[in-house]
Amino acid sequence: MARLADYFVLVAFGPGPRAGSGEGHGQILQRFPEKDWEDNPFPQGIELFCQPSGWQLCPERNPPTFFIAVLTDINSERHYCACLTFWEPVEPSQAPTCSGEEEEAGERPSPSALVPPTQLFAPKTLVLVSRLDHADVFRNSLGLIYTIHVEGLSVSLENVIGNLLTCTIPITGGSQRTISLGAGDRQVIQTPLTDSLPVSCCSVAMLFRQLGITNVLALFCAALTEHKILFLSRSYQRLTDACRGLLALLFPLRYSFTYVPILPAQLLEVLSTPTPFIIGVNSLFQAETQELLDVIIADLDGGTVTVPECVHIPPLPEPLHSQTHSALCMVLDPELELADLAFPPPATSTSSLKMQDKELRAVFLRLFAQLLQGYRWCLHIVRIHPEPVIRFHKAAFLGQRGLVEDDFLLKVLEGMAFAGFVSERGVPYRTTDLFDELVANEVKRMRADENQPHRVLRHVKELAEQLYKNENPYPAVSMHKVQRPGEGSHLRRAPRPFPRLDESTVQWIIDQATAKLQGAPPAVRAEKKATVPSGPPMAAIVERNGVVHANSARRLEVVRNCISYVFEGKMLEAKKLLPAVLRALKGRAARRCLTRELHLHVQQNRAVLDHQQFDFVVRMMNCCLQDCTSLDEHGIAAALLPLVTAFCRKLSPGVTQFAYSCVQEHVVWSTPQFWEAMFYGDVQTHIRALYLEPAEEDGPLPKGEVGPPEKEEEEEEEEEERSALDVASEQRRLWPTLGRDKQQELVQKEESTVFSQAIHYANRMSYLLLPLDSSKSRLLRERAGLGDLESVSNSVITNSMAGSMAESYDTESGFEDAETSDVAGAVVRFINRFVDKVCTESGVTSEHLKGLHVMVPDIVQMHIETLEAVHRESKRLPPIQKPKLLRPSLLPGEQCVLDGLRVYLLPDGREEGSGGSIGGPALLPAEGAVFLTTYRVIFTGMPTDPLVGEQVVVRSFPVASLTKEKRISVQTHMDQFLQDGLQLRSCTFQLLKMAFDEEVGSESAEVFRKHLHKLRYPPDIKGTFAFTAGSVHTAGRQPRTTKEKSPSLRTLSRNLVKNAKKTISRQYVTRKKYNPPNWEQRGQPVPPEDQEDEISVSEELEPSTLTPASALKPSDRLTMNSLVERACCRDYQRLGLGTLSSSLSRAKSEPFRVTPVNRMYAICRSYPGLLIVPQSIQDNTLQRISRCYRQNRFPVVCWRSSRSKAVLLRSGGLHGKGVVGLFKAQNAPSPGQSQTDSSSLEQEKYLQAVVSSMPRHADAASGRNTLSGFSSMHMASHAPSPRARVTTLSNPTTASVTRRTAPRGKWGSIRAGGRSSGASLGVDVGSRLAGKDLLGPPQPNGAPSEPGFLRPQRAALYIIGDKAQLKGVRPDPLQQWELVPIEVFEVRQVKASFKKLLKACVPGCPAGEQNPTSYLRSLEESEWLSQIHKLLQVSVLVVELLDSGSSVLVSLEDGWDITTQVVSLVQLLSDPYYRTLEGFRLLVEKEWLSFGHRFTHRGAHTLAGQSSGFAPIFLQFLDCVHQVHSQFPMEFEFSQFYLKFLSYHHASHRFRTFLLDSDYERIELGLLYEEKGEKKSQQACKSVWEYVERLSKKTPVFYNYMYAPEDTEVLRPYSNVSNLKVWDFYTRETLAEGPPYDWELAQGPPEPLEEERPDGGAPQSRRRVIWPCYDNRLRAQPDAISRLLEELQRLETELGRPSERWKDTWDRVKAAQRSEARPDGRGTPSSLLMSSVSHHRRSLGVYLQEGPVGSTLSLSLDSDQSSSSTPSSGRQAARRSTSTLYSQFQTAESENRSYEGTLYKKGAFMKPWKARWFVLDKTKHQLRYYDHRVDTECKGVIDLAEVESVTPGTPAMGAPKTVDEKAFFDVKTTRRVYNFCAQDVHLAQQWVDRLQSCLSDA
């Protein structure tokens, strides 16, 4: 029985400190009883809660209010304060007066103070304080008291209050109790059936109505995971109900944090408490809650829940979340199921609100039953008497449920509510309730109902019935009869204030009742206690993947077999199975199987093994443990713990080594929670054994040992009858019946059991925590983070232990003893903390605990002494044979910096190396060594898998290509230790993931890292391998500057220093505001201080920069000679863009000229010395034009189309200021005074000159040269005029377009940016470029039918610029040029993309951790292919424009990254010459090297560039070339290998070619002309091109055999991402030899020839197995042509003939093939190549016939019939014979010999005539001569571009006597006249004709 009410209190308004403000405080007028109850003291602060918004006077009489506040006392008891408030007129004494002081202070009295005093009302509150929650009874009782007062009933208030305070009712049991307070009233109190179930009335249903399902679920999860929750509402009662409803949902967990349903305004600072809470606050104070950053706010009135950004509420695990959600929907909205029915059933009756409330609670009850099912199987009973002590094995529970990773459940189990749940509900013998029944008996039913909503609903309703019945056990018979005040009674003037009550009367009534109660016998409620049912044990959650299970039986068999082999001593068999076993042990089933099998081999807790067996067992144990988490949720470490102390080997007499000394390196052993769970588990086993009858036991287990699994299995069978909880329950039932002595005896027995286990565990822990060699404690280093794990455990342990352990490791003193004790100290502290925690929790006596603290250090010390002997003896064991280190072969000039460090090369994400999905041997992990040389990082070693045999594994990459280095710690298969490792990633797509062998100290590893860093980032470019090769390597050597090698270089450098250094200063530029000069100043040179640019250039130009060649100083001429020999000039001559000499003589006929204006690099440092500009532009204006462009890179011509004569120009982007400041809009007052800047006009003139230089535009433009009439193109920052034509390149959508010449390839679609006004302009360029169908029907492939595509209204010049940069640019009004703004990616995007590409192609983590699609997904996320797509798309656009006769200026970013990529691609696609080996070299030298792509900056070659990182701009270009090559395999003379070779070596620093950022820098360093004037040395090549030439003489590896170009072929590749391929350069590797790009190293071992067989028998077959990822397939299986060439060479050697060069043989075979194929007219296209090539182009057929004669080579080289299936069969013009398949592999033989023969040539002045072998080359447009026919060194070249005439000659002095006079002819070039003489007249005539035809072709 309990009191219905403990206290009755009357609280009234008391004036506050500030009189007149109308605010006051609560005063307790009276309280009954006046003395506190002994069992329940009076709650403090009640007056705050009566008026939560503050005590205030009110100008009108409000109706009475009622709400219940909840207070929680120090013992977590809740007190319900029912408050009824009414208002009374203020007595004059209370009326606030406006004191004079206030008015003097200038304060206006508050409005309430101005009201006449009679009209103010003060609140007064009646409060009932109770520990019971009977809201209705409280409302009625206080209402009755108020009614008596207001209505003036003749009832004594003292009696009513006395009766109220003395009324007692039962707490539970479901009985009804009728009470009367003596005022003619009657109330029926209904008690719930059980007090464990919360009473919710309608509060849960109301909560759902207010907030909705999702919000309530969020609040539910937040409350369970201990977040702060704040409710807001204008109604106090609603706040109370909402809080009550949320608590009801949490059942069976109890909320144990701050719970204040109504928080008074004065206590709002409570909201900033750090602990979780559920609090309700009136909406009036919403503003004060805004600053709370970590509080979830639920607004009941608005129906919203606001979760702050920093708060993460973990959701319920699936599928529980969706099931709960759908069940709630069914309850709240039953119509939902029927909403879509065509014939809905008649309206169903909806549940009442009270019933709905219980249904909602039932859904959550089911949820908890599913969440916590099987929880009782994870309880450990630690003590039974005197009180049960129970612990929960959290890890096992999570492991069995398969929810280890689930954030929600993890947080719930760690929370306080769950701890309370375990201590309250874990007890085995107690009264049970609905939840116990549900979780034990209904789980199977819930599983079965999962997918059947109607059955779920039925179950929910059944549970709801029970919950309803608990609150309302009897049908509603209650007859309430309580008087209420009349309507509007509060408005009537009350007869008098609430009277003061007579304390003595009330006290007397209370005393009477108390005396009566004392006489009555205590009403003891008989509790029905019973054993709590445990329910079915949890079956391990089945893994969803069925395949795993199919394999698992086989895997378990392998594990069993291997173990039986080990114990039977069949070591060889076991060794074969071991790798498979180690792989199988990744699975949980196999690990369990291993522990069971090992248990079978332990007798009497000991198993002595020999050394090999011991090693095997330890390796398997380590493999098992390495996947254990620190919590050991699958119990693997727990099962192994008894085994590691059982298996041992004898090292010497009296010295035994146990397995535990070899398996210490696992995080699980340093986790306190693991040891606690293990300890409690063992204690439970022993306590259970204590109470089981001896008959039931197989004999008690010896103390301190856990039963082996077979015993556990037997026990499991018994467990069905008697689990530990059952035994405990039985004991608890018997406890009250036992005598005092017996009870004492049991308590002692249990206590000593726990104590003995504690000693046993102290020993066990010292075994696993003390390292074998205490001087080298890896454990302590690894576990420096131990504190984190400890702080997770709800334990006493602080983080200091982790700190102390870490310190003890770091403060090494060098003395073993000191160190040992330090390690010992750390372990002692760890064990002591553990012992403290478990012993206090298990109730061990303090004497025993003290004893333990004394014992622990002794245990540890003893163990250390034992270990010292073991360590000493183990060192004497013969060492394990480690494989011999394999030394790598080095390049000439490459030197070893660090000798081999032993490492393991671990598998990364590339599957093939480790067996992978395609099968094959596991080459990795491999054991070997890593070497660091001046050039590379090299790993060489052998696979650890014994089945792979003696394969050598090599993986290397150039040091210079290292992009990322990070330390890792890894566990190798070989070893139980966690090892330090390094992961090195390179931009050549290699990854070295290495773990250092234990013999490699951390110092050596650190030295390796430092050396690697020094080599990767030398302080200066001269520190790179390309310069240091061959010199003795000393780290950190400062490079000497090389002495200049030739006078020209010396003078050049001197001039550079004199002029350029003086005129250019990059660093110290003082920027000044730029004022554009007015018209008068326009012609004058601008004074230097007005210059505004990134580079400030002085105007005082040297006279020499502007004078023609005749005036050049001699030193400058030498300079010019050097410049003329650069690649650029050779190409300009070939393209007919002029030569320097012709330009300096200003032949006006040519539209363009070569200008030496930049030869001192004074105008633009990053441009070459000689540039092509329009003929009409003066050199001195170039200086000004250059200022408008970034980096001074003004537009220059780099290529001209031989067919359409359109030119391609390149420049940097316009200055950002250019648009806004430099090219201001024309806003001058008068046209004459225009403010346009002079350089802007110059710029316009320049563009006009480009337009005029094009033949078909020159006439049209001649009338337009007066530019003063219209403004500069780059001026207006306002919108383009209506006549503007701006073309925009849109993103990846592509439309196919066909020109008259039927190009093959696709078009990027181009979107119109602005329509032209007026039909007269025809189709605007946007729609023309987009190929819209405007004229005639379209072609089947979607192309426009109109043949002159892109013709109408075409602009003469298109400027392709960045969208952002061209924003304010005004287009040319005469429409001669047009802007094409495109969006390009920035370099940082390329970097980011490349990083992701690297990770996708070479992931660092093993493949098991990825799913198969992750490669494709990460490839897509890298966006690399979409960048390639963009580049190809823009390039094809430019090609198309050039081909249609318009010139194009590419002006993007700074002009050295994307511009270079686009310009190079355009030339490659447009000009077949660049698709030859020589042409491609020229293209790279010209566009990338001479035009200043910043190789050193982008490649981060030196220390200065380290932070900027590697940007693969050049690699991206090569990838684009690879994409084009893949689509047009017959158009390229070079092979794909050539592209990979360049990709590798542009980053490798083996050659000097790709170093530095511009020609200027190369000259400064003396690189550019270093080879002039000296014989090329035979030492290591410094240039990559030279190397390619040398290599090509030996092997055709760079040559593409399918090369059969079509003349004047313009390529238009498809650029859609779907057409692009991932380059195999990124993904393929060869572990047999390392990267194949250093040819000297990549030659595998020579294979013996068939004849060399010793037995002389039949030649053995040379077939061999080729492994993916190991062998180089291309080398192992050469293509048919190489194979035949090899065969020819072999046969020639056999016959004793000198073998010819492969090139000559190839040419001869081709020629013979051609003559054979003639009569037939067509060659058979071969099936061999058809498949890959025919759809691209006609086939170059190669097929092999097998016959008795052997293989014969048949080449169908000239099929003039174009295959009908080719898309580009548009041009049927006769093709040039395939003799033009020139094959250029070195300058000597790289010929396309159009005509050749012997001619006599007269030497220079006073030199004799000499016979030379001349070769006329049409394609390269040159005449070369050699000493004799087979000579490889070309002695000279006459460029036909320079030839002016070929005329008959006369015999000069010294000419051959025998020759006819008519056989002489002269060739006049711009430089000199050459005299030739042929052997006869006929030959001479032929030569003249050939030369003439060549000249006319050009």
Mean pLDDT: 75
Uncertain residue segments: 96-116, 540-550, 695-720, 777-820, 1034-1115, 1217-1236, 1258-1352, 1571-1578, 1645-1660, 1719-1790
Shape category: elongated
| Major sheet details | 7 strands, antiparallel
Q: State the helicity in percent bands.
A: 25-40%
Instruction: Report the β-strand fraction as a percent range.
Output: 5-15%
Q: Can you list the strand order of the major beta sheet?
A: 26-25-24-23-29-28-27
Q: How many β-strands, per DSSP?
A: 47
Distance between the termini: 119 Å
Specify the structural class: alpha+beta
In DSSP terms, counting alpha (H) and pi (I) runs of 4 or more, how many helices? 58
> What Rg, in angstroms, do the CA atoms define?
48 Å
Describe the structure.
- By secondary structure, the chain is of the alpha+beta class.
- Helix content is 37%, strand content 14%.
- The chain contains 58 helices and 47 strands.
- It has a seven-stranded antiparallel beta sheet with strand order 26-25-24-23-29-28-27. A seven-stranded antiparallel beta sheet has the order 44-43-42-41-47-46-45, with helices on one face. A six-stranded antiparallel beta sheet has the order 4-3-2-7-6-5.
- A hairpin with a 5-residue loop joins strand 5 and strand 6 (78-89).
- Helix 6 packs across helix 10, helix 26 packs antiparallel against helix 30 (816-841) and helix 46 (1458-1470) packs parallel to helix 49 (1513-1527).
- The longest helix is centred in the middle third of the chain and has 31 residues, at 846-876.
- It is elongated, with a radius of gyration of 48 Å.
- The N and C termini lie far apart (119 Å).
